[in-house]
Design goal:
- Helix 10 crosses helix 13.
- This protein starts with a strand and ends with a helix.
- Helices cover 31% and strands 19% of the residues.
- The protein is α/β, with parallel strands linked by helices and 536 residues long.
- The strands form 4 sheets. It has an 8-stranded mixed β-sheet. Strands 3-2-1-4-6-5 form a 6-stranded mixed β-sheet, sandwiched between helices.
Length: 536
């Protein structure tokens, strides 16, 4: 059965399953569109261009009511945001290109749950627990062998919004009567929380914790004495705010941990979905909690995975199979048709030993290979790569990406070396957990609290990046590189060569590599110094 599915909300995507295999997931923000975008007509045409036959089923994920009529009467187009049961679906017949097709819609909540279960390694029929925590939902579930889903508790609603709202308190640019924080605040607060070196809240902080966590979600302007708060517009560089960010992060996790410890005692696996599933510190705490024999988080835990989840739900409805085969590199291929000034570059076939040598000499390069990654994390197909040794490299990378200097840079590491450098003795291919660095030599990829959000690479998971890491290890002794996403600030991954060239020139990279061909900027001072040193 072939299933075409789309997510109508933010983090929009169109996914296609063919006989229980994910063939593609086209995400609206990719190709240098604005982050968190809903899908648009170009995405639809891109998806249709990838199809070789008319699908059997078309799907729409659930979302909030589109208007007041939908709010009062429901919609015949898509199911709502919440809803867990198999009956919380719309099944109908539609027409596509003159042919009758099945139509299916299920809730946004189910899309998260089915995405996590369907992409996990758990066999069909495995009972498990589930956690969905995102902007609106913060809930635990139990899933039985027939994939019946039972809500255990709405532990803390609006958990993602509550988490990000603290950043808005300190940010002078955030309007305190704004109903919701900016989408990017959650990732920034995750970085700041690692700076915390205090775990006991002050009396004022306890009052703020009560407002943020123990009462209904409200905008900051509802907080009594807002403008006299220690953290009101204080700025995110304030050391005490950073301390409180860590305390707040730990408190949110503890709310869910205490519920799980008390109420979830069956020793079943835990699957995690929702945007908070991208919080590597929390994922690591769940793995280390001892409550669950296995923890799985998909690389599309946020709403970018909702189209996949709805497609899995449709597949389960029509065939009884809730499992899919998938690869994280299931986006679109790179567009090399655009025009740019190639005279600016030294061009040659990319030699891994030479690229590794340039990286070892502090050149920073864009790296493009194959199809783009699904989900928000760059995993070696749309990446910026650099040597991992110097703090100054982290500074330069954050300048290139036009973002705050408190943001960490992640390492990509040979799987066989991960235990030596980061204490990780297993594959961790999707950059979803933190590990503690075991050396001071990797300053560019070691966060302030000595942790690193690593991606491990093997010849099976990403051969081209693996071969480059092997060459870099032969050159430096370390099979580790800085790996950060190749994107304009506030936009998704670059996916056109003319955009890539523009980015390299404007943001002072030293060049880029696309599908085995290197383009090194002749005007790069580092490149010229490298050539001079090589000639000697």
């Amino acid at each position: 059965m072939n299933i075409l599915s789309y997510n109508p909300g933010h983090d929009g995507a169109i996914a296609y399953l063919k006989d229980a295999q994910l063939l593609f997931s086209i995400e609206a923000e990719k190709n240098s569109n604005y982050r968190y975008s809903p899908i648009s007509s170009p995405d639809v045409f891109n998806a249709l261009g990838e199809l070789d036959e008319i699908p059997d089923v078309i799907c729409t994920g659930g979302w909030w009511p589109r208007d007041h009529y939908d709010y009062l009467h429901g919609s015949n187009v898509h199911v709502g945001y919440r809803g867990m049961t198999k009956s919380d679906v719309i099944v109908d017949k539609r027409r596509l290109l003159g042919r009758p097709v099945h139509y299916f819609s299920s809730s946004h909540e189910r899309s998260h749950l089915l995405c996590a279960f369907g992409m996990s390694s758990l066999p069909k029929g495995t009972p498990c627990y589930a956690l969905v925590w995102e902007g609106a939902i913060g809930a635990f579930y139990e899933i039985d062998s027939e994939l019946n889903i039972t809500l255990l508790a709405d532990v803390l609603n609006q958990v993602g919004n509550r988490y990000a709202l603290l950043y808005g308190l300190a940010d002078p640019t955030f309007p305190k009567d704004g109903p919701y924080p900016c989408f990017e605040y959650a990732g920034k607060l995750m970085a700041l929380a690692s700076f915390s070196n205090r775990n006991t809240p002050s009396a004022e902080e306890r009052k703020l914790l009560d407002f943020l966590l123990d009462s209904p979600y409200r905008e900051l302007s509802a907080y009594e004495g807002l403008e006299s708060s220690r953290y009101y517009n204080v700025g995110v560089d304030d050391p005490e705010f950073r301390n409180f960010a860590g305390i707040f992060s730990d408190k949110i996790f503890d709310v869910f941990y205490q519920f799980a410890k008390t109420n979830m005692k069956k020793r079943m696996p835990l699957i995690i979905a929702g945007g908070c599933g991208l919080n590597c510190d929390w994922n690591t705490k769940w793995k280390e909690s001892g409550l669950f024999p296995e923890v799985f988080v998909p690389p599309v835990a946020n709403d970018s995975g909702s189209a996949i989840g709805t497609a899995i739900d449709a597949q389960f409805h029509f065939t009884g199979n809730p499992k899919i085969d998938w690869n994280v590199y299931s986006g679109l291929g790179f567009d090399t048709a655009g025009a740019f000034d190639m005279a600016m570059y030294d061009l040659c076939e990319a030699d891994n030993e030479r690229i590794a040598d340039m990286l070892a000499n502090d050149l920073i390069l864009g790296w493009v290979s194959g199809k783009y990654e699904i989900g928000p994390r760059a995993l070696g197909n749309r990446s910026i790569l650099a040597a991992p040794f110097q703090e100054s490299t982290r500074t330069r990378l954050n300048e290139i990406k036009q973002r705050e200097q408190f943001r960490p840079i992640a390492p990509v590491c040979l799987e066989e070396d991960a235990a030596r450098w980061f204490g990780c003795d297993h594959a961790s291919p999707h950059m979803l957990y933190t590990y503690r660095a075991r050396t001071d030599a990797l300053a560019a990829v070691t966060h302030v609290n000595k942790t690193a959000r690593i991606q491990t690479v093997s010849s099976a998971t990403n051969r081209s990046l693996y071969n480059l890491l092997i060459a870099f290890k032969a050159r430096t002794g370390y099979g580790v590189l800085c790996n950060t996403s190749l994107n304009f600030n506030g936009k998704g991954f670059i996916n056109k060569i003319d955009d890539l060239s523009s980015y390299v020139v404007k943001h002072n990279l030293d060049g880029f590599v696309v599908e085995g061909r290197s383009y090194i900027l002749k005007s790069s001072r580092r490149y010229q110094a490298y050539l001079g040193m090589s000639s000697l």
